[in-house]
Write a structure and sequence with these properties.
With about 50 residues, the protein is an all-alpha fold. Helices cover about 65% and strands about 0% of the residues. The N and C termini lie far apart (about 55 Å).
């Protein structure tokens, strides 16, 4: 293993965040996501695209 490979696999490197929301409720996120899916499905159906 090279020094570069060892440096990129340190525990601090594995916990890098991507800027998403801090904390929050997974349940709320799932409910809002599925609501969006249903609304888009209704919209597509009304337009006759499927």
């Amino acid at each position: 293993m090279t020094a570069t490979a060892a440096a990129t696999t340190t525990p601090a490197r594995r916990r890098v965040r991507t800027g998403g929301p801090e904390g929050g409720s997974k349940l709320l996120e799932n409910v809002l996501g599925w609501t969006l899916v249903v609304v888009i499905a209704m919209f597509v159906t009304q337009l006759g695209l499927m």
